[in-house]
């Protein structure tokens, strides 16, 4: 099983960047499954709309994960129940609309994608450790399992990855919008990367127009943030898993920007 | 000017790892200056002692930066004033012992190393943006300037790097203990990396024994953390700067662990 | 049913203050039940010991509640299971030692005391709203029910009180160590006070020696806090409940200090 | 000097409540000066408009203080410079529009009103301790000095009050919207109250419609908050100061609601 996972798609420029490179990445890598985090894909960089989810899924994405910005566009409540390939963090409280994991059937087997959120410096959701224990009981052994771990701190991300080592195929972090360089296969076979990074503007702050964010830090006054313009970047990870054990065999980070062009 | 900077040295295993590789790295890279972050170098992973600072400086380190754990070993107050190559975050309040920046003379010129802390999810120190503005006014144009930006969030780190782009040689982040993969030279010539990563245990959580950290997340009870044992890792960045402009010419991340051996 | 509840007992001076006034308060008020929050009753103002819990229960206290400092003295794990009148926050994760609520039999009927913690600016425990829903299902209608709501923000405390209005006899807040002046009976009969205040030093900061706390704010450096000395204060609330409905009939705040002497 | 200070005016109902009681309170108490916190006086409970500031000042208010919600209505930037009786927290960074303190001339002398914000669980503004030191150097000894201390935690509020004891006439807290019962005159003569409480709805959560706030706690989803309707409350403090020493002589809390009617 070969899986391509891309980080948080930020705004229209993020969607444009995805479309620009996805076909070529697919040609080069032949992934069986493409996962993207869509929590920032709306025009203002917050949330996702039905149109955008349709656009991403139509462009070759197989599964869309979300995060703390999942609910920023209120229309999400209109389609999150019916859109079976859109996954919101599983540890929102009981009764939350939508699903916390989804199983995608590929020509190389079934893969269950779980979205999970950390709690440190974020909302007090259900315990992510106990939540994933419960979910894993429901997933057949024959599935590959990918966890999008949407969290702020490296501490919580590493802890959860060690906690499920050997029980899932990979734990890939999102939320910080900066790719980390610590990809590894943990001793029991789980692939891990603290953060996969983002897709969108290259010259902003997490994809947002930088002068506004700097002004906010300097003045401590309310400042309206907009998605940055100009040059773009794409960050992701390409993973290969063993068809018998469902464990990780190889992890390859992907970084494309003006300083690091895609070489096919 | 060639500079090697290594991230947070964690515990005795971090110091051992540094000693194990530093000589060979120096042979390979011939840096004019070696900077390490020492905020976790004490035996329990918190703070630094006089003996350890002497040990690091004696082993070939030219400058030690600190961070939020700077004061964890109370004996730091006994030597921070006199130890001219140990730098604590510059934006602690007026009256804080020690210095926020230090100038090191090398055979290739003078380099001023500034330590600065972010405030998001950390203590309410002085504004790091205004603090660095004031410091930069005091530094001669002939100096290279390296900023160790000790901060939690990618947002604050990127914002500050953009803010000083063209005014310093490089901004290199520390504190998360995970190396990021976003090294770049900003448009006005400042080198940037969100986090340089740590030096110490490879199989812990930020260098601490993982079972204890996981237990803390699971139980929410007090748990005593100790530095992990076993395999080690070393993360750093090697930078080259232009002798005329003092701007960055080349950034090369360094990652050494059992999965990524040092190849000389 | 008449209940006297006193807030966080801070250090030895807090225990001394309690002993000094309790007999006289009992004589004046004839409570059927005395509840105190003991999370700060250890000598250093953090946690509780077996000896202290025995001392408090021997001095006329019927039930001891705890809070975020419950676990600060590690010996608490030795007696929290067997000490049936000591209650720790009920929304710690499954598997936490001790009990989250306890039923005390008095000559005027049975009273169940529930300890619950808020999550805003505190640890990410289980949802306090859902936790109390579950607990209330287990308590017979014939019981009086008192909730010690240990939380930081007025918002979370008011919200939870409204949420259980009519389902418990009273919700009394603790943790801020400052008594609030908003005692009231909510429309469905639940008595409410945002915070009952503390018992201990009158001239400290939340009971701790003030110069140290001020120095911590000023320097942002680690400072060792000790329980303040000198004059003392006692804060509490006296409540009367209807024997049929178990609802609140009357709430009377108690404040005793040098400026507000106890007048019998 | 006699001063009446009322806490955060919340929404239209808060303004209505103020108008309803202010004339009678003035008749009863004959204050020389009336201060209100206006940070929540806009229709949606966030910020203040020019029209509302004019309305409050026209209705007999002499000085309006603000807090963390100061900037929620963007039109505030149009009048905060020219409106000399509107005071925003003094420890916003250098360059912030408006003033951090204002001197009001009354028939009983001049009173300087200072607005100051805490930093714990709030934004990283300038140090409030150092900020007030600087302000106090500029104020003539002949002035009465009232500090509106807008902060979240009781710890920071008590610390700052002790810090300025004897140097200002009174420190009165705002922001939590719940009146505390700890009014006192500190040993060096400064009057103190941790929080003065709010003016507005009696049956909400901090003045906002309670079902929405509860739903937010329960679901962790975005919920739109509106100012509550129905019954109202007014909280304040009446203070008398010595004309020679400018120190506090008497503090009397005011609480008016359906359960505590105004008795003239
Ligand atoms: Fe994101
Ligand atoms: Fe996010
Ligand atoms: Fe560190
Ligand atoms: Fe750190
Ligand atoms: Fe307490
Ligand atoms: Fe507490
Ligand atoms: Fe307010
Ligand atoms: Fe406020």
From TrEMBL, chains A, B, C, D:
Record GO terms (molecular function): 2',3'-cyclic-nucleotide 3'-phosphodiesterase activity; metal ion binding
Which keywords belong to this entry? Hydrolase, Iron, Metal-binding
- Which residues are Fe cation 1-binding? 8, 39-40, 177
InterPro entries, per the entry: Metallo-depent_PP-like, YmdB-like
**Residues of the active site:** 69 (proton donor)
**At which positions is Fe cation 2 bound?**
39, 68, 150, 175
Q: Does the keyword Nucleotidyltransferase apply?
A: no
Q: Which cofactor does it need?
A: Fe(3+)
Which Gene3D superfamilies does this entry report, sorted A to Z? 3.60.21.10
- What NCBIfam families would the database entry show? TIGR00282 family metallophosphoesterase (TIGR00282)
Q: Which family does it belong to?
A: Belongs to the YmdB-like family.
Q: What protein name does the entry list?
A: TIGR00282 family metallophosphoesterase
Q: What is the lineage of its organism?
A: Bacteria, Bacillati, Bacillota, Bacilli, Bacillales
């Amino acid at each position: 099983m070969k899986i391509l996972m891309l980080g948080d798609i930020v705004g229209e420029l993020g969607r444009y960047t995805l479309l620009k490179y996805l076909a070529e990445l697919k040609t080069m890598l032949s992934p069986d499954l493409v996962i993207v985090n869509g929590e920032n894909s709306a025009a203002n960089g917050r949330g996702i709309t039905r149109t955008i989810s349709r656009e991403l899924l139509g462009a070759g994405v197989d599964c869309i994960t979300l995060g703390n910005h999942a609910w920023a566009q209120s229309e999400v409540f209109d389609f999150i129940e019916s859109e079976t390939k859109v996954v919101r963090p599983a540890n929102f409280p009981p009764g939350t609309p939508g699903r916390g994991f989804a199983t995608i059937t590929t020509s190389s087997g079934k893969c269950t994608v779980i979205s999970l959120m950390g709690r440190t410096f974020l909302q007090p959701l259900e315990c992510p450790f106990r939540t994933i224990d419960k979910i894993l009981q429901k997933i057949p052994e024959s599935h590959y399992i990918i966890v999008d771990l949407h969290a702020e701190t490296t501490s919580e991300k590493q802890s959860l990855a060690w906690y499920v080592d050997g029980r899932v195929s990979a734990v890939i972090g999102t939320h910080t919008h900066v790719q980390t360089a610590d990809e590894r296969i943990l001793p029991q076979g789980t692939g891990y990367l603290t953060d996969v990074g983002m897709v969108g503007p290259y010259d902003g702050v997490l994809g947002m127009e930088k002068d506004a964010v700097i002004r906010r830090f300097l003045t401590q006054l309310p400042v309206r943030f907009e998605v940055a313009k100009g040059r773009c970047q794409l960050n992701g990870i390409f993973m290969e898993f063993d068809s018998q054990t469902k464990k990780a065999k190889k992890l390859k980070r992907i970084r494309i920007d003006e300083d690091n062009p895609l070489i096919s």
